[in-house]
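hey so i finally got around to running the thing on that chain from the lab meeting. sorry it took forever, my laptop kept dying and i had to restart like 3 times. anyway pasting the input first so we r on the same page abt which one it is
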Amino acid sequence: MTTPDMRARRALGACAALMVGALTLTACGGSANADNAKGGKDSRTKTSTARITISAKDGSTDASINATGVKVSDGKLTEVKMTVAGAGTAVAGEISADGTSWKPDRQLERGTKYEISATAKDVNNHVAAANSIFTTVTSANSFIGTYAPDNGSTVGVGMPVSFTFDKAITNKKAVQSHITVTSSSGQQVVGHWFGTRRLDFRPEEYWKAGSKVTMKIDLDGVQGTNGVHGVQKKTVTFTVGRSQVSTVDVDTQTMTVVRDGKTLRTVPISAGSPQHTTYNGQMVISEKFVQTRMNSQTVGLGGEYDIPDVPHAMRLTTSGTFIHGNYWYNKGNPPFGRQGTSHGCVGLADVQGAQGDTSAKWFYDNTLIGDIVIVKNSPDKTVSPDNGLNGWNVPWSEWTSGSAL
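ok and heres what got predicted. didnt touch it at all, straight out
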């Protein structure tokens, strides 16, 4: 039997159920406003189909300094702002012509906190937004390789591609496999490790004159050692110029300069003295200075010399061997070409101030970084291949066995 109290309770239960349903609908479908209550146009928020992806995840602490950017699918970017977090300094960038991507216009700094905010619209002009605050990989957790030669340079036929890493590399195979060096000459190019921080590339014989060499560096994210990853990603190209090989004969105290198979000039030199002999071997000119200071204490000697203005100096080894102009030689010495008097360098006749028509100036003006200087008939040993860019002194079989691949 149904009583009036029971009917009242059922009515209250039905009302409660309707109210719960209304609340649920509001929560899932967006807010209702006064127009909806009056039967007007539905103005609930529309969900955009545009999907924004920021490559650096929010809260990440190892973001790439090269690949960080923004992309959108099913829509077009309308605005992207990137700043150094905290400082508010803007990082300039550009939205692509088709509106689907954005990237900063420069490489980011390591160990720096950034913020990106991006908005986009889909085909119906519905707006989507995304934000990310992240920190780029730190110097402690990343490695960089300084390399030679420079992009766009023209070098001699002896110039190797040489990387020096700022941290010891234990995962040599992974690192070497992400650096490729190719030549338009078709020569096979192989890498060789000197220890854990240096990796050089060269062909079996000198580069072919006039060839173009391309080095692709794809180290971004590559693990070099435990917890340490690379950050570099770029392509470097350089041109090999004419072939020039100069041979220093210590017996005759002369240097013969041969370009493209033809002798240009033979000039008198002064090699190392009997007490300070000059290295034998194939050496690559790695630096050139119109004038430079040379101090014996910087190369492990005493106070034998300190010359502030050595003219036309061209470096042959890291340890301090140069071929350079010598304006002080004739003070008590016989003419050039008679005897070796240096502390291991190869001297050429010159004048103070690096001016005048001298053998040293002629050779300097006709020399490229990467040209070869061969020293023979010296009583000294052959130069170590890692003392400068002098890997040509390593036999090819030994060179290839030093590759990690």
